[in-house]
């Protein structure tokens, strides 16, 4: 995979219609019932990456977390259970690299009242399935998640499933896109301010 | 006696006289009971969410015959239908047999609704079509209007916004909206054909009274503090030559050209547009950073030249807060709806809007780019701003548990000479951070709570 021309932390030239089309098509793959990679070593490797992401988010280690992501990445929380089309519909969240860094920056200002104090979370990840792509340097990984979040006198459970699109850069698998499918994606959610 | 009067007769008498409203709502402050008393909330569901016009849905959510979307009037579950004759109705989502909700889906297209409990079947105009084993009833139920679904008796649209009220003596919706129609018109008319289409939503719940959101809807005083993390994030690149977002609040906001205007009947308007450079692209210039914005801007400038600025403004977030009492707020490109759940719980639904290429001069490709970018600009504030506001609303609700500390103040600007001006049309203008609109809308709230509204429902004959 090639390096970007523009610094995606600073400018957003890479988020265009072709990217959206590819994104929608790729996340259709993880809705299929036939995970195509049965190799246990490979599956365990991706399971480890998804678990590592969960651990870094639980630990609020956002800089390390961002390093798991490709330079030109996407983070998408649809507002409908079927994913929908983010070109025509509002998403709960739809971030490029710069906006993900905005999220992290905001939390660090000390003035993000919705996370002062921060939520405490533990994330469980399971049911990891791996799908191959035509591109040998790309895999789609589907996993279920259960996040217990303690914030302001309440412990709640946020459940759903995630799709991770991994791509290999210089021999390293990084997250090029993540789709988080919350069970309650189309419902009113109290304080939706943690990174999922 | 109307049906509603019969219901009222079953309640403790004279609710309006049971509270000392003039003690609870004063010129400069209100009592915490307005936010913490379950009985007042219950009365609001009749006197406010019933007694005056309430926003129910947008026509673009039910564009075709037989489309429906579920909605609420206060706590009453509704099915908003465009019936088989094309008439928009607000049906009570309540079977006339045993009270079961008929429709549990958010939206769809149906000519009739069959009750999942005993199978009574209703047309989408509310008429009972048939019941299983009808011979078990001595009469033909479908001929008795009392078995037709109840519906909101007054349903009227203003340019796509559908309102309803149970108050038979309410003025027509246009008259009720009055001067707030002008900013609504301008908000619509900046889009091609003066139209927008609703397209999904950001949805946020908070544990607090619904009025906390309405109090906040025109509040220019909170911006710098409640949204400090947002302002710092939007302006984190010091090499940007324009300050982004709501940076105009940072220094002396009351000396900026933006203003607050009270429009009567509880409606009010915060106009921040005068802060912009008065040119096409003036809005785009302060738009904060969103996914894909450089890509789309580059494309549109290549394709459209000078016209690109005006097109980019369509993806930008219109700097107005148009607040229609009690539950509608047009801000940025959102249609925000406040939905009360209980005296201490509220849902806020931020419906997104997209535009259409009404005259065919934009083209499918550019329209797609503009709308895509418009989705991303709309996601910004709920994610980085609203979450902090609703946290503060929740913490107000918690603070108000200190029962003996009775008052909440809204006295900013009150009595300061030269600060507040009543215009010829009766609207009232004040600086951006003034709490004048809170003092004015709560007078309307008090008037409605004191009144004994003649609430009715209607059934097809």
Instruction: Please state the second-level CATH architecture of chain A.
Output: Roll
Strand content of chain B: 15-25%
Distance between the termini of chain A: 26 Å
Q: How many domain units of chain B?
A: 2
Shape of chain B: globular
Q: Could you please say which CATH topology of chain A applies here?
A: Nuclear Transport Factor 2, Chain: A
Architecture of the largest domain in chain B in CATH? Alpha-Beta Complex
Series of H and E elements of chain A: HHHEEHEEEEE
The radius of gyration over CA of chain A amounts to: 16 Å
Q: How many runs of DSSP E, i.e. beta strands of chain B?
A: 21
Largest sheet of chain B: 9 strands, antiparallel
Walk me through what this model shows.
The complex is a heterodimer of chains A (196) and B (461). The longest helix of chain A has 19 residues, at 40-58. The relative contact order of chain A is 0.20. In chain A, a hairpin with a 2-residue loop joins strand 4 and strand 5. Chain A has one domain: Roll (Nuclear Transport Factor 2, Chain: A), CATH 3.10.450.50. Chain A has helices at residues 17-29, 40-58, 62-67, 97-108; strands spanning 69-77, 93-96, 120-132, 138-151, 154-169, 172-182, 189-190. Chain A starts with 16 loop residues before the first helix and ends in a 6-residue tail after the last strand. In chain A, strands 2-1-6-5-4-3 form a 6-stranded mixed β-sheet. Chain A has 196 residues and is an alpha+beta fold. The model of chain A has no long low-confidence stretch (mean pLDDT 96). Chain A is 26% helix and 35% strand. Chain B is α+β, with helices and mostly antiparallel strands and 461 residues long. Chain B has 2 domains: 54-158, 3-layer Sandwich (Rieske Iron-sulfur Protein), CATH 2.102.10.10; 176-445, Alpha-Beta Complex (Naphthalene 1,2-dioxygenase Alpha Subunit, Chain A, domain 1), CATH 3.90.380. Chain B has 15 helices and 21 strands. In chain B, the strands form 5 sheets. A 9-stranded antiparallel β-sheet of chain B has the order 12-18-17-16-15-14-13-21-20, sandwiched between helices. A 4-stranded antiparallel β-sheet of chain B has the order 5-4-3-6, with no helix packed on it. In chain B, strands 2-11-10 form a 3-stranded antiparallel β-sheet, with no helix packed on it. In chain B, strand 8 (121-123) and strand 9 (128-130) form a beta hairpin. Chain B is globular, with a radius of gyration of 24 Å. Chain B starts with a helix and ends in an 11-residue tail after the last helix. The model of chain B has no long low-confidence stretch (mean pLDDT 95). Chains A and B meet through strand 2, helix 4 and strand 7 of A and strand 12, helix 10, helix 12, strand 18 and helix 14 of B. Strand 7 (189-190) of chain A pairs parallel with strand 12 of chain B.
